[in-house]
TrEMBL record:
GO molecular function, a single term: GTP binding
GO annotation, cellular component aspect: mitochondrial outer membrane
UniProt cross-references to InterPro entries, sorted A to Z: EF-hand-dom_pair, EF_Hand_1_Ca_BS, EF_hand_assoc_1, EF_hand_assoc_2, EF_hand_dom, Miro, Miro-EF-hand_domain, MIRO_dom
Pfam families per the UniProt record, alphabetical: EF_assoc_1, EF_assoc_2, Ras
Listed GO biological process terms: mitochondrion organization
Main location: mitochondrion
Protein name: Mitochondrial Rho GTPase
Organism (species): Fundulus heteroclitus (Killifish)
Residues annotated as transmembrane: 634-656
EC number: 3.6.5.-
Length: 660
């Protein structure tokens, strides 16, 4: 919202400019007036629109042309004053003042004008007949008003109109010649209608109208007022009301009516609430609310944002097949100024048999955007009206900034839900196949992907010990000279080689040695195309030996050349390693059946956690009584650990026995 309003009064000498200002301030007609009064400022709380207002007088006798031009360029609104009993002063409006103002203002910044006919106390007739043609000729004239400084008629109205012309200009909204709203205004109101149409049936029903009313004006409509509004539309438009709700046509008609009746501040309130500025563009402040992100942190959507996105999906999945057809997707993004998702998205997230983005894929893509480019995510949520519909301060309320990874590593646990895996490998080693297989596509289905629709990202969910986590795979372009820090920053590294190509392992070894030997990021070797006959790799040692030497898990055989969907186990392993980078996982599976998995589940089980805390507490208490806590704290911890493990070992053994 604007900080203040500057009103300038111009016109021929003696038309009553100074008197008008003095009448407003003192509420009585001054007997004697100076040529010019000093600029006055009306404090915000006594003006109707609650903004500080400066009123500036002009006098030809006291000011130079230069000073006048300066004042014109500073003004937010200019009142051209004439005296209704003085024909020359009216003629001067068009042949002197309007051209002078046009010359001295920016072409782009339109200054609204108000025609003021003063001294209405001196004549019986109105000057409107002469004034209306002028108004029709110049679109910058916002309104006209007849008043009298002498009997204080329309004085406060005059200054109210001037304020309103600045704060709620009709110019961007309405075209007086066509007697209709301007295209940009229609576009903005159409978006607002679509965002507010929560069930997407093309009608604002009573619930939606009330929600809208509360969002914009902080109060619901009385049931009678709601009926009155609909009746007005019904009377004037055949298809404005449908099934007792307002159609888009009806909604637009209603706003045209507001504007035509001089109530355009209503329309402006709605537009501003939905993020529009004076040019009917979405405000940068609205689209990009401040969000503090510290380095080493990642960005995720929180529960609230997922719920909102879920409701947006439901609203557009009209045939309820849990996927968005091209039409449904287009409809979903209709409230955007451009289509944000290109065809590559269909190869970044899970799709159904028709290649349409599924519900899960849709949420994955949002997760990806939030992770890779949170500003873009804020912008997109802004287009969808997140803050309004989810009743949040701003889109930033939907984002979780995770704690620094450094702290996660220190504490050996993480609250994060999204993990990034960078995939390295030589040309044609099978990286893309590895990414696409994560989306459930076997080699057969991958073959139909067009080159220009390829994606270097793939994101989907996996389950790690019962918790759903996102794994984001990123294929790194295999050009050694172009590897950046960003290519290295991830939670787990995949090194892919082609078992059928003797020269492909060397690249993996090279990347590993150059970048990851001393890195804390866990690495995993993928032996891709395992359906093909394996050949000996032309390298100093075998891949298995290489992994052993560098304390990596053995190479994981992988193929996407399967009849059905490729095996997903490897992705769960990767996510697990990304989540627990320090855990020396001897067995890399998460089958939930083998001994390792059973132990792991047990370790995480609540029962055991309580046993462990209780044990700690008991031992601690004993030590505190003995008062040698400080000196022996290290040994204390060591011994508690040992005790837990002794107990644990026993419990695990018993569980295993039972299963057998
Ligand atoms: P300015 O030169 O435009 O600032 O005009 P002034 O405010 O100095 O007014 C010029 C003369 O017109 C003064 O004698 C005022 O008293 C008189 N005047 C101003 N407003 C009115 C009005 O509304 N009615 C009548 N009858 N006289 C007015
Ligand atoms: Mg004067």
């Amino acid at each position: 919202m604007r900080k203040d309003v500057r009103i300038l009064l111009v016109g021929e000498p003696k038309v009553g400019k100074t008197s008008l200002i003095m009448s407003l301030v003192s509420e009585e007609f001054p007997a004697v007036v100076p040529y010019r009064v000093e600029e006055i400022t009306i404090p915000a709380d006594v003006t109707p629109e609650r903004v500080p207002t400066h009123i500036v007088d002009y006098s030809e006798a006291e000011q130079t042309d230069e000073q006048l031009f300066q004042e014109i360029s500073k003004a937010n609104v200019i009142c051209i004053v004439y005296a209704v009993n003085n024909k020359t002063s009216i003629e001067k409006v068009t042949n002197h003042w309007i051209p002078l103002i046009t010359e001295n203002t920016d072409k782009d910044s339109r200054v609204p004008l108000i025609l003021v006919g003063n001294k209405s106390d001196l004549v019986e007739h109105s000057s409107m007949e002469t004034i209306l043609p002028i108004m029709n000729q110049y679109s910058e004239i916002e309104t006209c008003v007849e008043c009298s400084a002498k009997n204080l008629k329309n004085i406060s109205e005059l200054f109210y109109y001037a304020q309103k012309a600045v704060l709620h200009p009709t110019g961007p909204l309405y075209c007086p010649e066509k007697k209709d709203m301007k295209p940009l205004c229609v576009k903005a109101l159409t978006r607002i209608f679509k965002v507010s149409d929560l069930d997407n049936d093309g009608i604002l029903n009573d619930n939606e109208l009330n929600f809208f009313q509360r969002a914009c004006f902080n109060s619901p409509l009385e049931p009678q007022a709601l009926e009155d509004v609909k009746n007005v539309v019904r009377k004037n438009l055949i298809d404005g009301v449908h099934y007792n709700g307002l159609t888009l046509k009806g909604f637009l008609f209603l706003h045209t009516l507001f504007i035509q009746r001089g109530r355009h501040e209503t329309t402006w309130t709605v537009l501003r609430r939905f993020g529009y500025d004076d040019d009917l563009e979405l405000n940068q402040d609205y689209l990009f609310p401040p969000l503090k992100i510290t380095p080493d942190c990642t960005t995720e959507l929180n529960h609230n944002a997922y719920l909102f996105l879920q409701s947006i999906f439901d609203k557009h999945d009209k045939d309820r097949d849990c996927a968005l057809s091209p039409d449904e997707l287009r409809d979903l993004f209709d409230v955007f100024p451009y289509m944000p998702w290109g065809p590559d998205v269909n190869n970044t997230v899970c799709t159904n048999d028709q290649g349409w983005i599924t519900y899960q894929g849709y949420l994955s893509q949002w997760t990806l955007t939030t992770y890779l480019d949170v500003q873009r995510c804020l912008e997109y949520l802004g287009y969808l009206g997140y803050s309004i519909i989810a009743e949040q301060e701003s889109q930033a309320a939907g984002i979780t900034v995770t704690r620094a990874k450094k702290i996660d590593l220190q504490k050996k646990q993480t609250q994060r839900n999204v993990f990034r895996c960078n995939v390295f490998g030589d040309m044609a080693s099978g990286k893309s196949g590895f990414l696409q297989a994560f989306l459930g596509k076997n080699l057969e289905r991958q073959k139909i992907i067009k080159e220009e629709h390829r994606s270097y990202y793939a994101i989907s969910t996996t389950y790690v010990y019962g918790q759903e986590k996102y794994l984001l795979l990123h294929e790194v372009f295999p050009d050694f000279d172009y590897l950046t820090d960003a290519d290295m920053a991830c939670d787990i590294v995949c090194l892919v080689y082609d078992v059928s190509n003797p020269y492909s392992f060397e690249y993996c070894a090279k990347v590993f040695k150059q970048y990851f030997t001393d890195s804390k990021t866990p690495c995993m070797m993928i032996a891709a195309k395992s359906d093909l006959p394996e050949v000996k790799q032309m390298y100093g040692c075998s891949p298995l030996e290489f992994c052993r030497r560098h304390k990596m898990p053995p190479p994981q055989s992988f193929t996407c050349n399967s009849a059905a969907e490729p095996n997903r186990e490897i992705y769960t392993k990767l996510t697990t390693m990304a989540m627990y980078p320090h855990a020396r996982l001897r067995c890399m599976c998460t089958c939930n059946r083998c001994t390792f998995c059973l132990c792991q589940n047990l370790l995480n089980s609540e029962l055991l956690q309580t046993v462990r805390t209780k044990l700690y507490a008991v031992v601690l208490r004993r030590h505190i009584i003995q008062e040698d806590l400080t000196s022996s704290s290290f040994w204390l911890r060591a011994s508690v650990g040992a005790t837990v493990f002794a107990v644990l070992g026993f419990v695990v053994y018993r569980v295993l026995l039972k299963i057998r």
